[in-house]
Every structure is written in C-alpha cells, then in structure tokens.
Amino acid sequence: MTYFPPSPTRAFPAFLIDPSICGNKYVHPARRVERYEPWNGGGSQTNKLFERRGAAGGGSRPNGWLEYARANPSPRPATLQDRKPVGGRGARCYRRRCVKVFGSVPNLHRRYSSSNIAIMNNPTIVVAGATGNLGGRIARALIERGASVRALVRHGAVQEKPKRLRELGVTIAAVDLSNVSEVASACSSASCVVSALAGLRDVIVEKQTALLDATIKAGVPRFIPSDYSIDFTKFPPGENRNLDLRREFHKRLDNTSISATTVFNGAFAEMLTGQMPMILFKLNRVVYWGNADQRMDFTTIDDTASFTASAALDPSTPRFLRIAGDQLSARELTVVVSEVTGKKFRLLRAGGLGMLGALIRVARALASGEKDLYPAWQGMQYMRNMFDGRAKLEPLDNDRYADIRWTTARDVLAARKVI
Ligand SMILES: NC(=O)c1ccc[n+]([C@@H]2O[C@H](COP(=O)([O-])OP(=O)(O)OC[C@H]3O[C@@H](n4cnc5c(N)ncnc54)[C@H](OP(=O)(O)O)[C@@H]3O)[C@@H](O)[C@H]2O)c1
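Predict the joint structure of the above. Result:
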C-alpha cells in the first residue's frame, strides 16, 4: 500500500505523488509494521535513530522505544515523587533529571525538567491502543512520569506486544473493546482513559464509542480520544475521510458530560524524511501545492506521546490542546533541508489546490481503497488540508508542560542525514 499512488493520469508527473520514484521510501506510518512499529527496528527514521544509539553504545541494538527504554533505564525510577519543587509563585514546579531520548544525536534529546501544571498523585491511566506505535510511546511516557498504566489489549493480540508492555511496567487487561461491561471493569479506578486506536468507522466511531461508554460507566472523569491530527474543527466535513470519522465520534463525545481533551499535533514530523512526498531528496526539490509560504505543523511521534502523557496526568486540560514541534512553510523547508544536507534544494510548484482536489477525485475513483485506512487519496486529502492553511494550529499549547523540549524539523532531517 502506498500513501500516494503512482500517477493516476499519465499527464501528471508521477514523482509529485509517488515519493518512491524520487528515492523517498514511503511507507505509511500506521500500516507498515516494519517502518513505524515501535517493537521493531524496521526502517522508520525514528527507529533508525534508536539503532544508531545502540550502535554508538557498542552494545546490543535497541530496536524501538521499548528496547531503548530497556537499554537505557533512568538512573532510578522516575516517579512523580522524584520531582523536587524548584519554586515559582503559587505554582507547583518540579525538577527532574534530563533523559536523553535520542542518545548522542545533537539536538535530539528531551529534558524532563519542570512543570507548572498540577499533576495528580498515583494516577492510574488506561491506554487503548498501547500495542500500537503512538499508544506504546504514550504508555512509556506515562510510566516515565510515574503513572500506573493499564493497557487495554484485544483478546488474541500478538503475544509479543503485551509481553513487552509488561516488561515496561504496564498492566495488561485483555478485553473485547465492543463489550462495555468488560471494558468498564478494566477501567475501574482510573483517572483518565487515553485512546490511541487507529482504524476506520468500526474503530474510530464504534469501538471508541464503546470505550467512551465504558469510561463513563466506570466513573472515570476524563477521556482523550484518538485524534492526533491537524485541526479538523476548522474546515467542514467532506474534505478528509479519516478526519470526518473523528468528527462523527466527537458528536457522540460532546453529548456526554465527561471531561474530554483532544490533542492536535499536525503531521508526524518523521514523515518529512520520506513518507510525505514533499521533500524529494534525489531531485533536491521541495514540492508545494498552492502557497509556498503557507506554514504547516509538524510534531514528532515521541513529542506527541510525551505531551499526551502529561495531558493525561493533568486534571485541568481544556477541550482542545494544540502542539507543534515545528511550523514551517515549503519555502522555509528548502532552507532547512539545504542546510542540513549541504545541497541546494529548490521549490517545485506541483499545482494549485484546485488541481490537487481534482487529482484526489481521480485517484479516489481509480484506486478506491475505501476499506483501507490510508489509501493514496487519503494522504492527498491531508496534504490539501495542510496546504490550504485552515487546519493550522493556533494558538499553540507547547508551553503548557515545561518538561518537553520540542524536536524540530531540522532535528529530524539532520538525524536522517547521518543514518
Ligand atoms: N498526525 C499524523 O501524522 C498521524 C500519523 C499516523 C497516525 N496518526 C494517528 O495516531 C493514532 C495512533 O496511530 P498509530 O499509528 O499509533 O496506530 P497503530 O500503530 O496502527 O496502532 C493502532 C492501535 O489500535 C489497535 N486497534 C486497531 N484496530 C483495533 C480493533 N478493531 N480493536 C481493538 N484494537 C484495535 C491496535 O491493536 P493491535 O496491536 O492489536 O492491532 C493498536 O494498538 C491514530 O489516531 C492515528 O490516526 C497520526
């Protein structure tokens, strides 16, 4: 499966929509186990960073977030009690030791320093989708923050995944996500349920609704839905199939009295390294549609996970939180990628947004993929939403938790360079 198809029309340059033609090995994040799977060394840029870290250490090769956590334990367990007050008027501030997430890669370390938001003591957070890429990282970030984590895992899940979560300190609850009573029992006494499920209507609308009902039934006060996207509240339905499903779920969510928080993070920044046909590394071009100066939001998967974990532990979150590790236009990207690679990158205008819209219609008619989570035309819909500017995230809540040092697009691209 490719995110962007080979050219649906012979008249259209295929490299504009098929990154593999330009040497950008695109594999959609959530669908290609070997690329984004957190348990697996695979081909993802994030995982390759972990591999490099392992190689630099001269020891066994940590393959993903879990291997990394095992190979690089914190000097002592990081619990909320480990945080030491560092002052600040009225606000509770804490200091925690620095934890390098990306090892020796410059600029790719994250500091857990201080937070001015009150955080709960001894919380239990339930994570649905913890066997997935983002969900696994959220579970890890929660453990690092001293929470007890209970992962809802479907019956018959590949045994290796729950096993590895257990090794991280996560408690496993095997459930049928459609069974509200069963899920409610698994959610008892939790302070927040975080969803990182991925799927189409049966998952995002139906299974999440059952999860929501179970959360309410169990008396859990807070819920974080699996959104993690551009701000789809800013444009009308009909423009992005996958985001319309989230909108449909939000209607149900907003009819309840539970305290819900959505995390909007733009696109995962790792996709800039090849999955998104924006930077054509072999052709030294940065492709844009419409306006080359339209800024877009990019956040790494780990930063999204860290922020979500902090939000899960923060009882005072608003309905929407918006984060971006970086905000860059195509023009700004040409500068960054030129500096990072030492090659001169230039802009390449693929066409206007109208043309992209027409291309999406053609691709959808020809390639269909309605039952696939990420058919080619779906990726193109995201691209159109990002380039037209309405889904832009503002204002940002990046400063809400001071324990996150945001990873920039430059950091991500620089790490790609040295692989
Ligand atoms: N902003 C971006 O650029 C971007 C990019 C990619 C993803 N995302 C979003 O991030 C979120 C997580 O995505 P991901 O890439 O981490 O997904 P993922 O790796 O595919 O993980 C999906 C999780 O959902 C579970 N799941 C799927 N179908 C299920 C079902 N029918 N019943 C029970 N559990 C089910 C999976 O369980 P199993 O392990 O048992 O299959 C897994 O734990 C999603 O909201 C996704 O849209 C955002």
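The chain is about 35% helix and 15% strand.
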